[in-house]
Amino acid sequence: MITKANAGPWIDSMEGIRISSMIVEKAISLGYVPSEEFYGALAEFGTIDALVDWEWISDEADDAETWLNDHVAPKGYYFGMHPDQGDWGLYSTLMNHDLGDLSGVGPVESNDFVDWFMEVRPDAVVIFEGMEWPVSEMREEGILPEYVEITREHWGGSRSKMVDYHVEIERA
Questions:
Q1: pLDDT reported for residue 161
Q2: I want to staple 27 with a disulfide (CB 3.0 to 4.6 A). Which of 32, 50, 103, 109 is the partner?
Q3: Cα-flanking dihedrals φ and ψ of residue 142, to 5°?
Q4: Against a cut of 0.90, is the pTM above it?
Q5: Is residue 66 located within the same domain as residue 136?
């Protein structure tokens, strides 16, 4: 069983053109059933490694990745490319987003949510169940459920003070 402990890179970006066939191979090892076309190409090319020359290997890899996300990825995580490093693996759903692009993201494991915000925007104010909390205090107070969904993000404040970043969350 795949858990959040398995999060991180699974296939190094240095594998280059082999990444697609490696994704399919990993998915098969976890229960994915490839297309009939894949098996035909495998018979023709002989090995999964040789499938780098099969014109449809990237489509098969996309299908395998979708299957992994639908059937294997733990809640709050996704299989895909790391947005900065290009390594393929299992990552927190927050990994693929930036400030200004978070509305509707979730479910996210609460600890990942706090860790990410402490790194990206430690002065963020989180609105949860009608209360405002500095993100730095949320874990200490023990108020977060196991998973959250980001419902809205916005900048707020007045002209007389520095503008604060606010993010609204709810239970996922």
A1: 41
A2: 32
A3: 65, 30
A4: no
A5: no
Quick one: 128 and 156 in the same domain? yes
Query: Which residue in 107, 129, 111, 127 sits closest to 119, CA to CA?
Result: 111
Structure tokens at 31: 């229960």
Q: Is the Cβ–Cβ distance between 169 and 105 less than 8 Å?
A: no
Q: Which two tokens stand for residue 162?
A: 């520095």
Amino acid at 120: V
What confidence score (pLDDT) does residue 21 get?
Answer: 93
39 and 81 both lie in a single domain: yes
> pLDDT category, 151, cuts 50, 70, 90?
confident
Give the C-alpha separation, 135 to 21, whole Å.
41
Tell me, yes or no, whether 115 and 155 share the same domain: yes
Which tokens in the block code for residue 171? 């239970």
Does 44 lie in the same domain as 22? Answer: yes
Q: Which of 2-11, 12-21, 43-52, 149-158 has the lowest mean pLDDT?
A: 149-158
- Residue 31 belongs to domain spanning: 4-94
Output the CA torsion sign for 171, 75, 10, 41: negative
Amino acid 156: pLDDT: 60
